[in-house]
Amino acid sequence: MVSPDLQNLKKDAETVIEDELAKRQQNEHRLDTLLDDTAAGIKKLAAARRQKQNGFYQAWVQWTMGSSPLKAMQLEATLKREQPGMLTENPEAYYRLLLERAGALPT
Fold first, then answer.
1. Average pLDDT in the 10-21 region?
2. 23 contacts: CB under 8 Å, gap ≥ 6
C-alpha cells in the first residue's frame, strides 16, 4: 500500500510536469508562429524588391532582343569593368545604366 503522502507527492509532481509541458508547447507554438511570420515578411520584401528591379531588367532584355548581341555584350563588359560589383550590389542601377548607355532611356 502506498502512503497518502507519496500519492500526493506523485500527483503534485505530475501536475508540475504537465504544467511545464504545456508551457513548452505554448512557447513552441509562439516561436513557430513568429518564425512563420518572419519568413512571410522576408518573402514579401524579396518579391517586392525583385518586382522593382525586374522593370529595368525586363527593359534591358527587350532592348537586347531588338539590337545587336555584340553591342549588348560590349555595353555589359564595359560596365562590369568600370563597376565590378554593381550587378550584385544594385541590379536596378546596373540595368538602368545599361539602358541609358544604350540610348534606350533619357540620361
1. 93
2. none
